[in-house]
Batch of 3 targets.
Target 1
Amino acid sequence: MQLFAFGLNHTTAPVEIREKVNFSAERLRYALHDLTEHELVREAVIVSTCNRTEVYCSLDQENTHALIGWLSHFHNLPRTLLENQLYSYYNGGVVRHLFRVVCGLDSMILGEPQILGQMKAAYQVARKERATGGLLNKLFEYSFTVAKRVRTDTAISSSPVSVAFAAVRLAQQIFGDLNQITALLIGAGETVELAARHLHENRLKRMIVANRTIERARQLAKTFAGYAITLEEIPMHLAEADIVVTSTASPTPILGEEVVKQAIKLRKHRPMFMVDIAVPRDIAAEVGKLEDVYLYTVDDLNEVIQENLRSRQQAALQAEEIIDTQVTHFINWWHSLDTVDTICDLRDRSQEIRHHLVLKAKRMLDGGKPPYEVIDYLAHTLTNTLMHTPCVQLRQAGYEGREDLVSAARQLFQLPEE
């Protein structure tokens, strides 16, 4: 069995490509079933976030060309559009890449903690859909243990660095103090909640939370003394917003050019700072061309994020050392699986011999043989029987000049060096 992983992320593909291969929650389940029905695939986990889409598989044989074709076919995209954007890993490379991803070492924001939760969620979906088996279950669960150790033993996530934090820091650069600023947050997921927390901690004057489910919007708004609205009410409140942060799972843009243009007119051309963290994008690209609008996507925030990474660089080096050790441990465990059948056969053979000789010894006792004679017979015969085949094979190895087999036998039975 082999491990194979392939995908694209913020370093290999722009948001325009990433949003085309994004898996919604509904399509993810269908994709897992479709993928595991592929003749090559035994197990699969699909990870799809705003910054990456990755497929992890265990295969009976290596045929990566067919699996990359599956991805392009599933999303109805030309294969040539993806080939230059994709990366791939095999066997030990898969293990190392996964460990680095869950530890936040492969993220846009070094050490960001959100990716661990996203990877756990993707794995749980795959398990629920019965797309995983023994190997991927062990691999992903082990990776979460590695991530916990990295966060415990290093300072990789000690600084408040995230996309949401970068967005708020950029807003401060544009507006200065936020105590006279109104923010509209669209969505109620983890990223939006984190942005709300950072804004609130920086004394934002007023917060409006819009969500498809009004009850979820109310819960988040209540936490930060905000006001909740539905997505349909956004056009009526957009002109109030100095800052707009949006991150939903909508397959199409929520804010188009016309609705933003009207809001800017009502604001008398006071500037509006907009951050679109969603993939696919929530704000139409044309909005960024409007005057008095400062529109940033997740890719645009990268420069801001880089300024906040210095304190994590040393911790990342320590994390890499931990990962190196844990990759070796996992691969050693994986290789040990190859010996399981042999060990089981050896134990079965030994038990068969033991059972036969014990029955014969019991008959000797029932026949009146002295116990010490029976014990001596049992020990002598069991030893000779167990050692007969190995000794025959070693003599043959010596006759054939198989010094490797002789050396292996000395190591296997822990015999002293000749």
Target 2
Amino acid sequence: MSPSSAPDVRQIFEAHGDFVWRALARSGVRDADLRDATQEVFLVVSRKVSEREGTSSLSTWLYGIAIKVAANYRRKAHRKREELTDEVPDPVEGEVHGDPEQALANEQARVRLAQILDELPVDQRVVFMMFELEEMTCPAIAEALGIPLGTVYTRLRSGRAMFEEKAGRAAEEGS
């Protein structure tokens, strides 16, 4: 793709920013860190957009970057240190207040989900997440990814089967 035909990063952000945000959130990035992780994705986009070959759809390309950023985030998360301040932090949307056990259980479930999704092959994971989490139709996924509709159905069926197997194993290990 030539630099003159490369889409502007601002246009990409405006069209796909919500998609990237959701992909990061569903890949285990904490709510409090989503803004930074989204910014990191679009920093990568700004560096790589002129090199993009266009062999996959823009959504697929962005999803791949978001998954890598989320994986890096999860690897670094255990080393992250909190800064002490005199300011009271604003509540994070969706955060459970008053029940620390429930908040911990929710965070552990989110991490388990992200780990299971990470274990799916990327082609199956993309289709599975677009269908199950983004609630896109199979024809819309086929169009967005530039693949045949039958391929979407095959990847979705395989992804579901693998997800159910891995989730069942995780549930057995947790009990």
Target 3
Amino acid sequence: MIYLQLLLSFLQIGLFSFGGGYAALPLIQDQIVSLHGWLSMEEFTDLITISQMTPGPIAINAATFVGQKIAGAPGAIVATLGCVLPSCVIVTLIAGLYLKYRTMRVLQSVLGTLRPAVVALIASAGVSILLTAFWGTDALISLAGTDWSMVVIFAAGFALLRWAKWNPILVMVLAGVAKLAFALITGEPAS
């Protein structure tokens, strides 16, 4: 039964993930955190971090990780296949249609309409992850409850990526080292 749940959940994610990995984050979060409870919000945030550091799309990395956690290697295979299968079928069909009808105004209009929705999905996922990083899942948003080490790491990482144009991998490694250093200095666990 768990294999069927994994397959159907990740089929839905694969089927409705328009706009790439970041746009899929709300769908992934809804399926694995809210609906099934396979991961907590903290584990989900960790999953996104790990998915960024490993090769491959976020949704496929998430499917493999969740499948492995829930049902071992067979679960990882089933979840990953569920995530990939819709894309393979849809892309094959759409490629043929696009090549045939790519100059139609209606098609260009539909594609233009989807862009703002994809941006909104990405922004929603980003805000959700920031809220979890800065205030946790159970805390209210307040100055007293703010994890200031995470705010400093975020601001420094953003500055290094945006203005200094540093390599994202180097920034992720430095962010991990900085969080570990903050944890060692303050004596708190490095979550």
